[in-house]
Structure formats: structure tokens, C-alpha cells
Amino acid sequence: MLKSLVSPRVLVVRLSSLGDVVLTGPVYKSLKAAWPNARVCALVKPQFAAVLRGHPGVDEVLEYRGLRAALADIRAGGFTHLLDLHATARSWLLRRLSGVAHQAVYRKDALARRLFVAFRAASPALQRHTVERYLEALAEWDVPPAPAALSPSDWGAARLLPEARRVLVMQTSFLGDSLLTLPLLRRIKEILPRARVSVLALPRNAEVFRGSPWADEVLVDDKRGANAGPLGLWRAARDLRARGFDLAVIPHRSLRSALAARLAGIPRRLGFSTSAGRFLLTDVAPFSWLTHDLERNLALTRALGGSAAPAPDEARYVTPPPAPESLRKTLAQAGVAEGDRLVGVHPGAAWATKRWLPERFSELCRRLAADGFKPVIVGGPDDAGLGAEIARAGGAADLTGRTDLGELSALMGLLSLFVTNDSGPMHLAAAAGVPVVAVFGATTRELGFFPYGPRHRVLEAELSCRPCGLHGARACPEGHFLCMRLLTVDGAHAACREALA
What we know:
Blueprint: E1 9-13, H1 18-22, H2 25-34, E2 39-44, H3 49-52, E3 60-63, H4 67-77, E4 81-84, H5 89-98, E5 102-105, H6 110-119, H7 130-136, E6 166-170, H8 175-179, H9 182-191, E7 196-201, H10 206-210, E8 217-220, H11 229-241, E9 247-250, H12 255-263, E10 268-272, E11 283-285, H13 293-299, H14 325-333, E12 342-346, H15 358-370, E13 374-377, H16 384-394, E14 397-398, H17 405-412, E15 415-421, H18 424-431, E16 436-439, E17 457-459, H19 482-485, H20 489-500
Parallel strand pairs: 1-2, 1-4, 2-3, 4-5, 6-7, 6-9, 7-8, 9-10, 10-11, 12-13, 12-15, 13-14, 15-16, 16-17
């Protein structure tokens, strides 16, 4: 049907949560592959419009502001095709009143999901991922489905920047974001071997970069302390200006980072199309939620003449140092003997909805101990109470609050497995080559922050309310916390055995 039109105008409707909007990405790729001249438009809620702006398969994003306004936008758009990926009464009304000639609807299987949650009633429909159901809807128009993932290597060529000699990489976000910036540093060094590469980081994450062979200098931005507020930003920018950088690479998509680079007078400022400070950048790379954050960061190097495609060894980018005497002493005090086969367990997370149930961590520790392993609980000082509770009930060694970042990195070299919530230490373990079993509740792997590499396992429940935010929430917005309650110890234990095998 598409082939009968020279330039189809396709509207894709998805009015649900962030995760559902993120998963529409392969649909746009399929449409563009089948009909390169098609104009593809997405209709989403205003709070999720930024997710699709800059997407290589989306020409325009319409914000849903009510039925009447949406119908006016649709009629004004002259659309020839309407793809309903929402499949509710509201989107049915949109279809009926839109006047668009060719329509297709995806099969939601909402009843099957509700029966499973309420009564554990199994259904073959639940075995198919949402992306698969999205792509099946395109069969109505004879559009072949593209692969259900998007790689930065699919993006168009970036405008090449002049070769830089003094490069600043700005990453003042969480520990996980900092770790996932290391492959970007390595790629920059490969492309610009004569350049001096400096990194701007938070004080608590500076150690990540000080131990890296790809950072010539580590600068600290204490943006929550000495450099807080407008005056602190000005001081930070003044210090950067004095160093004479000619290029800033900014994987952190914050307004503050882009503004600091602009105030520092750095002539070329490269970041993502979805950055809050995009208007302050001189060069941008497309951003896609449908790829891992490590690969998203590599896409920034396209503008430097590099490749966005990951190398075969991209998943290994941290070499654990030898265990210092301080760590060995701490392990001995916690009851760990020489020769014990260690499994790291990290039950903490910055957000409550990203934490699996403590009693399930304890039971998993008991099962791992029965398998011949010694579970070791790790975490920061804020996790001390939680770690002590799980260690006591699960017969594990408790190291919570007793290791700094360097010691935690060294501990990774002693582990056979790492079991964790979605957190910064998860990325450290994966980068060090430790098999990871990650429990995802409020967040989803589609956001791009899952453990990177083929050996790892992610446990998650398919629920329409996930994710409830980019970083989760303080409490379950729905009040049921099913995203974690549905994840069983049996399932986690089986995943541990698979990863260990």
C-alpha cells in the first residue's frame, strides 16, 4: 500500500509513558527503510516530545494537548497514513475523526497482561515484546520490520570538526554516567592521539577518571559545594577559560554543562541534540533512547572523524587494580577467607523504586552460599543499615560503607558474579568483565543504562507503568510496586546460574 504513494505522510500515535514512546524507535526506522521519501510524524504527550526530537527517523513531533487540538493538527498535516500504537478509546476516536485514509493498529494484549498480574494466567501473547507487536502492525501496509534496535552507526554522517589539541570532556553526572564515558575517552584518544584530553567531573567521581589511561588531566567541578549557584558556575567557567580548550565534548545533557563551556569561551562545543543547553552548542549529534548509553557517547566522535560502532572489546574498559592491603584487611574482618569464591551483592540504589526487596536479596544470598559461594554485600555509607540487615539474614559478609571507589574497583577483580539493582556499581562490574545479574524495577533496559556486554542478565517485569521516570521515583506512583514484587528469588537464582555458567 505504501508503494502506491510517491511521498507518504505517516502519523504515528503513542500517548502513553516514556518507555512506550522510547520503544517506537524501530517503527520509524522501518518506515524510512520501506519508503525513504515518507514524511514521518509522531504524536506524543508534551513531556515526552524531547525523546523523539532529533531522532533520525522522525521528521516532526506533535504534542498532544487534547482531542480537539490533536484533530486540528492531524487534518492540517495532510497525512495519508495513521499508525495507532496506543490502541485505547482515545486513539480510536482520533482515528475515526481524523479522515486519514490508511490506518493500522497494533495489538495491545492488555487483557492478557491484566489476567497475568491478577491471576498469573499465562498467555502466548505475553511472550512477545512490545516492539515486536509495534512492528507487526506495519504488516497492514506491507512494510518489512527493521531490526528491533537502533545503533548510532545508522545515523547520517556528522559535520567534521577541525582537529583539536586541547579537548575537555564534561561529565558531572552520576557514577554510572561517568563510567560509561570512559569508552568515549578511549575513542577520542584513538582519533586525536596528539591531543591533551582533560575531564571535568564531580569530586566523588574524579577517581574514575584519575585511574584512566585516556585522561591526561582530571578537573573537579564541585557544583553542589564550592561551585554551587550562579557565582560558582562563573568561577568554574573562568578556571576553564584560563586553560585554553579548543573543543568541549559534552555527553552530559544538562544546561549547566553547556553554559559552562560557552562562558569558558571554548570555540567548539559538541553535545547531543536533546541537551537542555542545545542552543549553546556549536555542533550536535543525534540522541536515541534505543541504544546503550556507552554507544550513544561513542556517537559524539562521528564529528571528529571516528566511528560510532563499538569495537569487539568495547565492553571491557576497566582493569581492576590489585587488591590493596586495606581491602584484604576489611574482607578478613568481615569473615571472608582466602580461597572463598565471592559474589558481590549491591542492594542499594539512589531511588527507592530501584531497590529489590531486602528479604529476597537475603534469600538469594542463602541460595548462593548453598551453591558454594560467599556473598559479599557492598554499598555506600547510606546503605549501611540495609546491608547489615541483608547480611545478617542471608549469612553474607557485610562491606557496606567500608570501601571507597578504588577499593570497590579492586574488589571487582576478586568476584565471580555481581548481583545488583540498577546502579553505578553495576556499570563498574560490567566494565571490569564481571558477569552481572541486574534487577530492574522502575527503570527499563530500553533507557540505555543496562549492563553492557553479552554475559549479563537483566531481570524485569513487563508492565505498562514502567518506567515511571528516567531515574525511577521515591515511591511507586501506582501504589503496588509490582515491578519489583513480580521478580522472584527463583528467577534471580536461575539467572545467577546462567551467568556463572
